Structures are given as C-alpha cells and as structure tokens.
Amino acid sequence: MHSNHLLLEEPIRMASILEPSKPSFFPAMTKIVGTLGPKSRSVEIISGCLKAGMSVARFDFSLGDTEFHQETLENLRTAVKNTKKLCAVMLDTGGPELQVVNKTEHPISLQADTLVILTPDQEKEATSNLLPINFSGLSKAVKKGDTIFIGQYLFTGNETTSVWLEVSEVNGDDVVCLIKNSATLSGSLYTLHVSQIHIDLPTLTDKDKEVIRTWGARNNIDFLSLSITRHAEDIRHAREFISKLGGLHQTQIFAKIENVEGLTHFDEILKEADGIIISRGNLGIDLPPEKVFLFQKAAVYKCNMAGKPAVVTRVVDSMTDNLRPTRAEATDVANAVLDGSDAILLGAETLRGLYPVETISIVGKISAEAEKVFNHDLYYKNTVKYVGEPMTHLESIASSAVRAAIKVKASVIICFTSSGRAARLIAKYRPTMPVLSVVIPRLQTNQLCWTFTGAFEARQSLIVRGLFPMLADPRHPAESTNAANESVLKVALDHGKASGVIKPHDRVVVFQKVGDASVVKIIELED
Fold it and tell me: Start and end of every Pyruvate kinase barrel domain (predicted)?
C-alpha cells in the first residue's frame, strides 16, 4: 500500500505522474465538509456527495430557516441509510454578520466614483445611492479612509457583484462612502465587511442561541462552528451556553477565524476550541493578499502540534459555476493538504454550486494525490520534538504505535477507544496508513434511563485526517477480557478486509487498553 508514497524532495519519474490513481475505499485521508443548501439538499444529491467523500454536512444558518434545514437534515439521514456512509452534522452560526437590507430584492446598480450612503434605517428602500444595513453602530466604528467590502453571501470572487467602498465622511448615524468599482448587487443576501475594524456585536447572537436551543438540541449536532470568533471568551461563552442544553454537552466547538481580531488572539482561542476553521473568504479581505498564505501555514501548524483539527475553506470557488477547478485552485487544495490540514470545507461550491458531487470528488482526488508526497517522516520527527519530554503516557504509546506501523509497513492501525482521545492522538502523528477507530460504547444512566455513548465520538472523528470510525457492539467494553477484545478485533479486521484496506499477509498494528495498561501489538494476517 505504501509503495505509492513519494517525497517531493526525491526525484520523481515524470512518466509516473501520468499513471492513473488506484481506486480506494477511502477517497482520501483528508476529510471534506460540504455545505448543504438549495443545490444540494435532495436525497439523490446528498447520496452522491457522501459517495464522493463528504464526511461532515454543514448547515449554514446565515441562509434559510429551521424548517428548511430540518427538511435537508431528514434527507441527509435517508441518504446515510441508503449509502451506509457515516456523516457528522455541523451547525454554522450567523454570528455578528453585517448585512445589506434589500426588501424588494431588486438589483441595485452602483457606479464607480459616485457616493453611496450606508444607513441603519432599515425602513428605507435600497437604491443606487442609499443602502440600509442591519447595524446601528457602524458610524461609531469607522472613520474617513476605512475600507468597506460588500459582496454576495459566500462570494467567490468571480461575481461582478462585489463592491469596494471607501469611507468619505460620517454624518450622524449614516456613513457616506465613495464607490471604488462599478457593480450590481442582485440576490437576497449581501454581507458587509469592514476591514480591520472591531464590530461591537456579540459573537453568539440571540438568533444563534435560539437556533442552537431548538434545531441544534433537537438534532444532537456534532459540531458547532462559531462564526467570527474573535476571543477565547467567545468559545467559553458558547460552551457554557450549550452545556446547559442536555444532549449538546458533547458537541465540539470549532472557532471560525475570519478577521484580524481572531488572528491576534489565535493562541488563546486554540486552547479553548476543539478545532479551528480558517475562513479565508473574510480573512482575504481583512489581510493583505500576500499575508493570507502565511497565516494559513502558521495556523495549521499550531493546530497540528496541539492535535486539534484544522479546516481550510474557499479552495475551489470557480467550481461554483464550472466543472473543473482552475490550475491555481487545484494547487491550492494540494498545498492545504501538504500544510497539514485535516479537512477542506466547501461553501458556495456545494451550497449553490452547479456541480456539488463533482466538486467533492475532485477535491478528494487532489487531496489523495497530495497525501502521497506528504513528508510523513519529517512531520513525525517535528511533532515528537515539539511535544518534548516527558510525554504523557497515552501520547507516548500513541506515537510509538505510529512509529511501529511505519516500520513494519502496516496496512492499517486499529485503535479501540471509548472517548476517541486515543485515536485522535494517533492521527496527530499523521501515519501513512488509515486509522480504524473502533469506538466502544459505554453505558450511562441519569437515574431515570440508561443510554449508550459512542455515536458522538464516532461521528466527531469524521473531521480528523486519517481517522475512519466504526461503532462496536456495546456488549464488548473497551477494557475487557482478551476473548471479548479478540471478538471486536475480528469484526474490525473483517470491516477492513471488506473495504479493501486489509489484504492477506498484511501487517496490522492494534492499540488497545487491557486493564490499566495501554498495549500496542503487531498482527501478521494469514490467508
């Protein structure tokens, strides 16, 4: 399996580049988050997305109401049953997002070198020289010379519908701006981004709380994507809020870094969050273009070393309207994988794009090719060096399991886990082979009823690079007799064989707990 692994530092035979890629049960180690929306909410399309490699479905509450998203979620559940592909659910909050209020939804033409007034008076009608917005504090936040960007929600950069404004003067509550380029605002939702300015609105808005309290709690969401996270306190506040909602105490919170404020407080945010989404759309406006790549590489590295998932957005914007990505986009996907990203998040490409299934498929193929030239050896050494000594007991065993698997050229690592922590630690060291995370359910009681845990932990590994979960029979606890462990191991091996990951005479590394001890063993399979 690993003869395919090359290093970019080594000479590559050019003809080998043209050899077709071998099909695999797992399209790529790197995961794909797909945003479900108007163009991707039927059972048929969602089934296609799952087969193409989507492992997390994102529900974006900046668009659509709870009924719309509930219907989409029911279709997702049907598609999961039909395809037998596990999929996690991510709720993406609207956050403190500034929007242009265009009640008539008529197109608005803006001419370069003319003036337009931004007003908080939402009763006024949007025209070419007056744009009502949903925020009354803009006049207090900006000054002459500041830059304001208005674009279609999830703008791709290909539209002729984005406009740059420069603040000319502040007049009471109104902000007078000079239009820098001609554009036509058409469509229902236009967002407004003020470059490098603090907007005095809560990160978790009242609307967000209502959505989480109702839709989120009812559907036991796996991930909460906290839009426009600016401080560690934002994460603490969100965690305190969802911890009171019963079933959501296990929900993981991902900080969505979208502006300079989030960048400035990145280290503190990373400590509090369960993962990071590098939202390059808004970051691309807030940062000088030549600095975006630098933040991406630095942020992904910090996430890798902390063992927390790093998710990169906005990679194949042009596929919103086209069947193939541009050369730059294809290279961008590969570079995100080579940087160490756990997952690629697709927004407009699947939400309103014409080719959601094809987009997921091509991103998966590019990721798989990039993984073949990822320098695992160097990454492993750097991670061990960064962690330093003494390592924790679990981290020491996890890193040893990866080293053993690479040395014996194992085809897969099988990890028995209850919380998912051991499997995530193994994945942190980026083994060259898939990690089959066998999640052992645990029995819990609230003194009124008994419930099994495990489904959350299994789905939450669907955003971690290289982790592929399966839920074990709850009658076999994680720390049990050898006979029970052998029984679960047989099921895991059979699953690996059925999916084509494990073949006769392969070596398999197994990580499990026996009593108080963590054990790594190497198995050589017979025919």
Answer: 30-360
Tell me the pLDDT of the chain (527 aa) as tens digits: 444 565 666 666 777 777 777 666 667 999 999 999 999 999 999 999 999 999 999 999 988 899 999 999 999 999 999 999 999 999 999 999 898 988 888 889 999 999 999 999 999 999 999 999 999 999 999 999 999 999 887 676 666 778 999 999 999 999 999 999 998 888 767 889 898 888 889 999 999 999 999 999 999 999 999 999 999 999 999 999 999 987 898 999 999 999 999 999 999 999 999 999 999 988 988 898 899 999 999 999 999 999 999 999 999 999 999 999 999 999 999 999 999 999 999 999 999 999 999 999 999 999 999 999 999 999 999 999 999 989 988 899 999 999 999 999 999 999 988 888 899 999 999 999 999 998 877 766 666 666 666 788 889 999 999 999 987 766 555 454 555 567 778 888 888 887 778 888 899 999 987 667 788 999 988 86
1 inside domain: no
Residues 502 and 393 in one domain: yes
Please say which residue of 332, 348, 371 terminates a domain. Answer: 371
Q: Based on the domain organization, do 213 and 313 belong to the same domain?
A: yes
pTM of the model: 0.91
Which residues 6+ apart lie within 8 Å of 282 measured at CB?
A: 193, 228, 258, 259
Please say whether the beta carbons of 332 and 312 come within 8 A. Answer: no
User: Do residues 370 and 338 make contact, with C-beta atoms less than 8 angstroms apart?
Assistant: yes
CATH code of the domain containing 129? 2.40.33.10
Please tell me whether residues 32 and 157 are part of one structural domain: no
- DSSP string covering 14-25, please? HHHHTSPPPP-S
CB-CB neighbours of 515 under 10 Å: 8
Secondary structure element (H or E) that encloses residue 455, with its range? helix 455-460
227 and 133 in one domain? no
Residue 337 sits in the same domain as residue 386: no
CATH number at residue 409: 3.40.1380.20
- For residue 456, the enclosing domain spans 376-525
